[in-house]
Structures are given as C-alpha cells and as structure tokens.
Amino acid sequence: MPADPDPATALIVVDVQNDFCPGGALAVPEGDAVVPVINALARRFATVVLTQDWHPADHLSFASQHPGRAPFETVEMPYGPQVLWPDHCVRGTPGAALHPGLDIPHAAMIQRKGLRREVDSYSAFLEADRATRTGLDGWLAARGIRAVVVCGLATDFCVAWTALDARRFGFAAGVVEEACRAIDTGGSLARAWADMAAAGVRRIARAAEL
Ligand SMILES: [Zn+2]
Hints:
Layout (H helix, E strand, L loop, with lengths): L8 E6 L19 H9 L5 E6 L20 E4 L2 E4 L25 E5 L22 H7 L4 E7 L1 H14 L3 E10 L6 H11 L3 E3 L6
Parallel strand pairs: 1-2, 1-6, 2-5, 6-7, 7-8
Antiparallel strand pairs: 3-4
Helix pairs in contact: 3-4
C-alpha cells in the first residue's frame, strides 16, 4: 500500500449519486464502478468532502424547461453556453441521494451545488456564472488544506470543473482516472483532459500512484 497522502491534501468525491449511476436519470456509463475504488481511496485521506448535485425541480439546466429543446443540446444562458440535461438530482429525491454503496463515514462535509434555478454548478467551488462561490475554497483553506485529489462523476463535467477551479483558488490538484467515469458528449472528455493538463492538474491513472 502506498504512503498516505499528506494531511494537507483533501479528497473531493464528486456527485456519486444514484441519478449518475446505471438506472439513474443521467446515468454515466459504469458510474457505479467507481464506488469501491473511491471507498478504498477515501480511507487514505483524513479530510474528505463529498459533493451532491442538488437541483430544484424546475432547474434551467433541464431540457424540460426549454420548450422544443432536447437533452444534450446546448443553449446560451446569460453566463454562457449550457448543455441541457435530462431532469436529474432533484433535491430530496432518491435520484439525488448519494449511492448507497458509498462508505465514507469520516467525510467531514457535503457540498451541495446547483441549488439556484438560474445557474448550474458543475464545479464544487464556483457556480457556472463564474462569480458565485460555494465557500468550499475557504472551508478547505481554513483547515490548512493546500492540495486536493478529485474523483467521482463525471470526469468531463463536474470532476474537471472542480479540479480546474481548485487550481484557480490556488490549490494543487490531481484527478484519479480509475476513480472517475465520463459522459463524453461531443468530444467533452478529450477537451476536459486537455484543459486540466493546461491548468496544471495532475492526471493520476491509478490510486496506487498517489
Ligand atoms: Zn446537475
């Protein structure tokens, strides 16, 4: 077993929720395959943050709120392009619940995101308007955290945006590839890895390389 990561490194487990797993409303292929990998990974970190996509039922990232539009089309929002999704992770529903196999009892906090109807939030740090902070950066900094390792669902959206924003807020960041799965629509996965590489996010193929 490799040495535990430095105590100043936190693990961020992104959106391992029923709706992103097979059978869910916005299932990521093999999404549930990350659960045992993440459970083992999390045991090596003293500080673990879980994130939870948590939308009102009429959230504007839902294609159902845009007459004539279909899921996976892109529309222009005041803050820029927005991919439209099937209704997913409606707050308080079973689909929004964390996957029941997730076993991380020492997780210190759950960062919910996407709570405002008008603005999506792939990132755990900054909403899609690129202005509204969730407060996670301050929470981590106050605990002496200087680096984050990101895993979960989906690689090319919420994981990538979270890792990129971690860099924006001055944290070192890495993504564990075997602890993520992607949606990969319209070349999004290749683009996400390129963006992350350009921002200095470390690509970690396997947890054993940490
Ligand atoms: Zn969402």
